[in-house]
Amino acid sequence: MKLEQAAKQLEALGNPTRLKLYRILVRAGEAGKPVGTLQENLGIAASTLSHHLHRLILTGLVSQERQATTLICRANYPIMRDLVGFLADECCADAASNPAAGEAAA
Length: 106
Fold this sequence. Notes:
By secondary structure, this protein is an alpha+beta fold. The chain has helices spanning about 5-15, 15-30, 35-40, 45-60, 75-90, 95, 100-105; strands spanning about 35, 60-65, 70-75. It contains seven helices and three strands; from the N terminus they run ααβααββααα.
């Protein structure tokens, strides 16, 4: 994953409403949630929800699919895993090569 892509995704999740929305979609699983249900869960205007969904869709974190007259939103799990992996992949990588640095920080 590129640094710029991760930064855009983290920026999109940096808004409390979008983060709450994203967590609802992550919890929903592959079935996703209809837009109307999301609006009820969040208690926000349709135009506000549309704005927040648009930001998440632009970064690839969320996808939408029309099923008849219902618009279903889903978390994009591969993209989510890539972002989490990007954040965690190098965890403590420098600590193993420089054990004295950990002591100095303490």
